[in-house]
Amino acid sequence: MSLSVAVSGASGYAGGELLRLLASHPLVKVGAITAHSNAGERLGALQPHLHALADRVLEETSAETLGGHDVVFLALPHGASAGLAAELSPDTLVIDAGADHRLEDPAAWEAFYGSAHAGTWPYGLPELPGHREALRGARRIAVPGCYPTSALLALVPGFAAGLLEPEDVVIVSASGTSGAGKAAKAHLLGSEVMGGMSPYGVGGSHRHTPEIEQGLSAAAGEAVRISFTPTLAPMARGILTTATARVRPGTPAEELRDAWASAYGAEPFVRLLPEGQWPATKAVLGSNYANLQLAFDAHAGRVIVSCVIDNLTKGTAGGAVQSMNIALGLDETAGLTLQGTAP
Amino acid sequence: MSLSVAVSGASGYAGGELLRLLASHPLVKVGAITAHSNAGERLGALQPHLHALADRVLEETSAETLGGHDVVFLALPHGASAGLAAELSPDTLVIDAGADHRLEDPAAWEAFYGSAHAGTWPYGLPELPGHREALRGARRIAVPGCYPTSALLALVPGFAAGLLEPEDVVIVSASGTSGAGKAAKAHLLGSEVMGGMSPYGVGGSHRHTPEIEQGLSAAAGEAVRISFTPTLAPMARGILTTATARVRPGTPAEELRDAWASAYGAEPFVRLLPEGQWPATKAVLGSNYANLQLAFDAHAGRVIVSCVIDNLTKGTAGGAVQSMNIALGLDETAGLTLQGTAP
Amino acid sequence: MSLSVAVSGASGYAGGELLRLLASHPLVKVGAITAHSNAGERLGALQPHLHALADRVLEETSAETLGGHDVVFLALPHGASAGLAAELSPDTLVIDAGADHRLEDPAAWEAFYGSAHAGTWPYGLPELPGHREALRGARRIAVPGCYPTSALLALVPGFAAGLLEPEDVVIVSASGTSGAGKAAKAHLLGSEVMGGMSPYGVGGSHRHTPEIEQGLSAAAGEAVRISFTPTLAPMARGILTTATARVRPGTPAEELRDAWASAYGAEPFVRLLPEGQWPATKAVLGSNYANLQLAFDAHAGRVIVSCVIDNLTKGTAGGAVQSMNIALGLDETAGLTLQGTAP
Amino acid sequence: MSLSVAVSGASGYAGGELLRLLASHPLVKVGAITAHSNAGERLGALQPHLHALADRVLEETSAETLGGHDVVFLALPHGASAGLAAELSPDTLVIDAGADHRLEDPAAWEAFYGSAHAGTWPYGLPELPGHREALRGARRIAVPGCYPTSALLALVPGFAAGLLEPEDVVIVSASGTSGAGKAAKAHLLGSEVMGGMSPYGVGGSHRHTPEIEQGLSAAAGEAVRISFTPTLAPMARGILTTATARVRPGTPAEELRDAWASAYGAEPFVRLLPEGQWPATKAVLGSNYANLQLAFDAHAGRVIVSCVIDNLTKGTAGGAVQSMNIALGLDETAGLTLQGTAP
């Protein structure tokens, strides 16, 4: 068996990471590789780390070049995927790495993205309750944002188990710069980012805020409100999310830990680390793993969960491939057996 | 006028930073430079960036070598300063960069440090209400911890103005690795820390937790409880603190901002940035400045304050020199006019 | 088919990289994982990126634990492998990632390593003339040093083709810090290495100097003398080697390029990049590829070759696995199809 | 005494570094601060590390805004300074941080820069033989390039003493990314440069090549030909230059060392380190120092010199201020007493 798979947005970081994973996927044959302004160029000039595909030439992103594949990955600016997907066969599995089809609430979409809502697709985070089932057989999938992937994996077990209070949830994430994309911007120059950290999108204005609240509220069965602050760290890849919530009074510490342990005990890519070991982003770099650890701070009455992922792998392309595997009934781990690249 | 100043612990990062600043201080003559295991070595071999003092030889740390100076800086492991200070003249200004004399509550000291409390000295963070006055004429000063410096500067104005609630205060800090000192440890190797982030001391166990609570509680006039999570960032210097607290219902956004603006309007080293500009650690590297910005997240009902300092300068040696200047009635900014080193 | 493979030195960087590659090798079953001072610990605590092997426990390194496998990788301090190898069956493939069996000249060994020469094993750099053949069926293999791998790949084609002069060969390499190992040393702390570069082993004193000269001289058919300067770069992995030699007068530029193009045209892991594209270490990170480019500087009469590898992969563990594949008659690329991890 | 000093190009890295130094210069009053596309903006928004000048507003770069100062620093793209300088009074000290007036040979200028030669100004590297004298009283000064500063400091003493041969000189430099400027370019994004190294301008094509040859040839009294390869290192600041040349046969090792020791023994900013200590870029970061060390490789018959500078300080703005001090008869070290910022 060999699936034909097309990747659009192949000159960017998400597209490059999709190709990195797909190049080693045992059941995949990489078909069209497309881009916009870089169409006509060799992939090897744009993504020199993709040795196996170096001589492939990028085609123009269009329904024609993407059509006729079993699977199409869209790694496009938001707003671009709905129209393109509509032109592709409903039998084609279309996986959108962009934001367009993640939010269920049109008002939230419009408030944060300023355009008309394009509808909601099944959400490619199979570790959330009920999500794996919803992905089976799906032909349209929305890949979660990188921050929401880490934040939801961090807190959903506690909310799903009814152990956390829905107010005063605080999430602070540090992300590598690849999350900001490959477009040339002066504040993202190496000279600016090396050796320093800075926050951005503070005060609830980051677009991933409603996406995180959507996932937590669904798990909690009530509206959860968060304070989310993203920060930019001097590293190319990786997210460290520190998530903390007030624990319902009277909850025993062991019950807290059990909630996470039982939620993830059978998951192939999410690991609650042994007690005493704290996660480090380097341990998951280039891999589809999420590592977590939690502590109960009895003095403050809060649980603190640390979750690390690679923003481009589990946070984007790896989650997308994992979702593809589930949708098509393949081994969920196919093409995703890479260990972390450390040190 | 020329003060004779001795620095102990000169082979470490705090000692080196003290010497870097003192070497350019217009009113200071650097006297004894002392260390423990490195006594007898050239400073230039241990701290090659201190060109002006390269040929000085380190002496043994003792009351004899440190005695007879106007000012003595102690940059020693905790537990070592009380005994040494007792041997120095009460007229000598002794400034302890270690933790021994920061905490007022002996129980908190014993719980977090596991030894007998050595007593409390005036706390060298002059920007806190009443602290500058307490430092004037002091002959014993405790330099604040680096995390507490950033956290207290971030939140004290809101608590002092009565605008913040004392529960569910959450502080997440990212620190450069120099905060962990110069002792060789495998988990602090460049290979381990470059390109990644990790948390540590999670769940309220970090020793700076009671120090932060002490300062916030004093400002609030009631007990403040915090959740504090430090993380290690891939940079040598700098702290980015994200501090967030619930705003008392009904507080207007402008009143919030006014609290910080009026607290720091006349401060020489703490700057509330113009609205829209977020702080970056690189802007304060090597300088004694703290830059802040805040946002009111009405949806979450919380204020989020970002504060950046250089952990070795404002967070340790710069704050120490600033305190020295105040204690001795010098210009508070003497020797501290360095701009940030960027990019 | 499934080979049983043991890895010693599994708590270090070379051992960890071997396990990272072997964990994904389709024909390998990882057997004993051994260490010295870390014996008895979980691999997951020491190498948290090796998710697939996290629960394996390290055994003591000995002929007993390593015996009975088809292949044994030794990643030990130099001096330790000869004795251990002598206790293993001559039918076992023993691959030494250390230096002990690389040098042919006992005098060079003794001058640079200060101990008795342990003998020479086939040298695991199959891209050198005649080396692939020598590895077929071998049961003892010496893995080249990381600097020699990059320097020999850079210059051997020119010497083998008789185009370069044997004097005034200059090689300057920048290496990531993992090349210095995982032992805790103060000068390798993240605080010391981040944001800076420094040379070491200058003036011909680095132990890889005779190893590079050995390989170049064999290719040239005459004694080649080099000036080799290694430098430490603020990155965890990767080597950029700049190698330059005087071109024999009258050599046409195209003949120069042809020498490299024909040497590597059929190689699976060494790529001469298209003209105009210069290699970057990030394009090969975590992969077994070596990327090269060359320029003829007519004004200076010299060729300059840039070669990048990952010091831990092609420079150590990847080269070792490639050699194993050749020795055992497997597909040379088995287990080595990883692309680079970028950005 | 207080000199009025104007700085153009103030939004870039060279302009920012000039202002960082001038803000602490005891004899300087910063006058007009000018830029092109950023005119009208607050300096604090563009160079947030320059706290002392944060509220200054950038003016348009023109002869009008720059006129009427004692000193004008030009930090402009090449080609822009000659016209502007012609409009400024011949009594004004004009210091050009750009390339326009460095090269003496019009043919070399035209070959490497592709435009008409603008003439030659005194070259602001006072440590070269005769240069300090030429700078005294000068009113037009060309600041050397950053690579030439490090390469000339590394090799000139040997050539001036007649100890080195003029062929097969090889220079390999690793530079921080600030040398490439602040313009947004995708290949300079943090995601691209962090964690990796790459060469550029290989084969003698970099524009600093003729500038280095000019300086070496003048010192040697004969034409020196070099192979120069610049590489980009993952750090914001700093240059490590490895320079190597063939030693004339029969030269004793001590004579070699003496050449450098006597050349720099009285220099305030260039230090030949004690034997056994190798230079590190971090020791000079933010300072005007150049640190050097050399080794004689008898086997290869070559001397290897390692030289480190901060490309923005000694390599640009610091050298410019030092030249200003000399030209105006001030203390040469005024405003340049900053130590390195380490760790």
TrEMBL record, chains A, B, C, D:
It catalyses: N-acetyl-L-glutamate 5-semialdehyde + phosphate + NADP(+) = N-acetyl-L-glutamyl 5-phosphate + NADPH + H(+). Its EC number is 1.2.1.38. It is found in: Cytoplasm. The active site is at C146. SUPFAM superfamilies: Glyceraldehyde-3-phosphate dehydrogenase-like, C-terminal domain (SSF55347), NAD(P)-binding Rossmann-fold domains (SSF51735). One of its GO terms (molecular function) is NAD binding. Keywords: Amino-acid biosynthesis, Arginine biosynthesis, Cytoplasm, NADP, Oxidoreductase. The keyword Iron does not apply. PROSITE patterns: ARGC. It comes from the Bacteria. Residues 4-136 form the Semialdehyde dehydrogenase NAD-binding domain. Catalyzes the NADPH-dependent reduction of N-acetyl-5-glutamyl phosphate to yield N-acetyl-L-glutamate 5-semialdehyde. This is N-acetyl-gamma-glutamyl-phosphate reductase. It comes from Arthrobacter crusticola.
